[in-house]
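Example 9 (inverse folding). The structure is encoded as follows.
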């Protein structure tokens, strides 16, 4: 089961990101464990300075703003996939 964390303070974009991930996983029939991290100190401990951010199986895959549905589908389709490039990480 994929472990997904949405890092954000509970703003509308953070909540919408979590819902997008949940809905996309349900559409694809993929079982995930989704955790929302809203504690600022905990978010900063991950090195995240812009939210929402998304981690998939311990790897940071998205930082800042709503991810595109296609990006979410990519994360769910291949848990070993590299970052989509949105945050400059590979």
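The amino acid assigned to each position is listed next.
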């Amino acid at each position: 089961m994929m472990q997904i964390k949405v890092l954000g303070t509970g703003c509308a974009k953070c909540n919408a990101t979590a819902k997008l991930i949940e809905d996309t996983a349900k559409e694809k029939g993929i079982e995930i464990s989704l955790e929302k991290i809203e504690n600022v100190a905990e978010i900063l401990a991950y090195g995240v300075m812009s939210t929402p951010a998304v981690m998939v199986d311990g790897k940071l895959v998205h930082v800042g703003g709503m991810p595109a549905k296609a990006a979410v589908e990519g994360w769910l389709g291949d848990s070993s996939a590299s970052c989509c490039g949105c945050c400059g990480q590979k």
